């Protein structure tokens, strides 16, 4: 079985607080259907194999962590876990890493859905979401199967949002943004610069992604992490200026996106 894995974009990203060791977010996640995607092939094998250009040790890979989390959950349900050890998984990577597009989380979330289908495990969506929460913050979105969702908490509270899919242009500069460092700078700014957390974005949650992008808000307003990312990676500020308005910033970066066909003015 072969699965196509698309990246996600944060139409907006607001940090509304800090709880239990995690920043709490309000965001709209959408899948960006287009030319950028990973492909995952799953087939039966004599033992577990994970192949792909991941640039990390297998024990640090989110697919491997998802497999372990699924095994742990199945064992608590007194279901067979050994079938997961008979999978050969190969991923052709195209979603850039450190880009705010959720590539690693996308792989893990789709793996959970794919393994459930391939092995006929019979896990319900709620159970897949429960497993996903233990793997990583953005994994739940991809495990949900939603194309668009309002996201709360640390990324595990997913509310599917029904809207027509949009076409996006995505520009990813050759800059790897370290998510932890961007969040750390944001947290330091909260403490030292008198910056306050955003208020919950109930109004944003009601609007379609096109309505949100058509409001003409700045990158700083639409994404609370943009300023911190540009502080750590100053070249992002120059790139943002060169791209112009109507280009927005996804997650902790480094990718920018806009609606396809929209003309921009440079500042």
UniProtKB/TrEMBL annotation:
Tree of life domain: Bacteria
InterPro entries xrefs: GHMP_kinase_C_sf, GHMP_kinase_N_dom, IspE, Ribosomal_Su5_D2-typ_SF, Ribsml_uS5_D2-typ_fold_subgr
Gene Ontology MF, one: 4-(cytidine 5'-diphospho)-2-C-methyl-D-erythritol kinase activity
Active-site annotation: 8, 138
Record keywords: ATP-binding, Isoprene biosynthesis, Kinase, Nucleotide-binding, Transferase
Gene3D superfamilies on file: 3.30.230.10, GHMP kinase, C-terminal domain
Reaction catalyzed: 4-CDP-2-C-methyl-D-erythritol + ATP = 4-CDP-2-C-methyl-D-erythritol 2-phosphate + ADP + H(+)
Record-annotated GHMP kinase N-terminal domain positions: 69-145
Pathway in which the depicted protein is active: Isoprenoid biosynthesis; isopentenyl diphosphate biosynthesis via DXP pathway; isopentenyl diphosphate from 1-deoxy-D-xylulose 5-phosphate: step 3/6
Enzyme nomenclature, EC number: 2.7.1.148
Biological function: Catalyzes the phosphorylation of the position 2 hydroxy group of 4-diphosphocytidyl-2C-methyl-D-erythritol.
NCBIfam families xrefs: ispE, PRK04181.1
Name of the protein in its database record: 4-diphosphocytidyl-2-C-methyl-D-erythritol kinase
Originating organism: Helicobacter japonicus
Lineage: Bacteria, Pseudomonadati, Campylobacterota, Epsilonproteobacteria, Campylobacterales
């Amino acid at each position: 079985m072969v699965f196509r894995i698309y990246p996600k974009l944060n139409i907006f990203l607001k940090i509304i607080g800090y709880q239990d060791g995690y920043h709490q977010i309000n965001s709209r996640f959408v899948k960006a259907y287009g030319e950028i995607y990973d492909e995952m092939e799953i087939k039966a094998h004599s033992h577990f194999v994970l192949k792909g250009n991941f640039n990390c040790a297998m024990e640090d890979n989110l697919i491997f962590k998802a497999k372990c989390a699924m095994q742990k959950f199945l064992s608590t349900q007194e279901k067979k876990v050994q079938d997961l050890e008979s999978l050969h998984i190969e991923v052709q990577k195209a979603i850039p890493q450190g880009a705010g597009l959720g590539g690693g989380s996308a792989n893990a979330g789709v793996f959970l859905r794919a393994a459930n289908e391939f092995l006929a495990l019979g896990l319900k969506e709620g159970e897949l979401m429960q497993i996903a929460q233990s793997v990583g913050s953005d994994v739940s979105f991809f495990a949900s199967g939603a194309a668009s969702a309002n996201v709360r908490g640390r990324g595990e509270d997913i509310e599917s949002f029904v809207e027509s899919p949009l076409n996006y242009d995505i520009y990813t500069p050759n800059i790897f943004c370290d998510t932890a460092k961007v969040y750390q700078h944001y947290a330091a700014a909260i403490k030292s610069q008198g910056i306050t957390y955003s208020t919950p974005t109930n109004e944003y949650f009601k609007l379609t992604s096109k309505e949100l992008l058509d409001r003409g808000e700045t990158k700083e307003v639409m994404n609370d992490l943009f300023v911190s990312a540009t502080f750590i990676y100053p070249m992002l500020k120059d790139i943002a200026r060169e791209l112009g308005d109507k280009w927005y910033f996804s997650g902790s970066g480094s990718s920018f996106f806009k609606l396809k066909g929209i003309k921009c003015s440079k500042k």
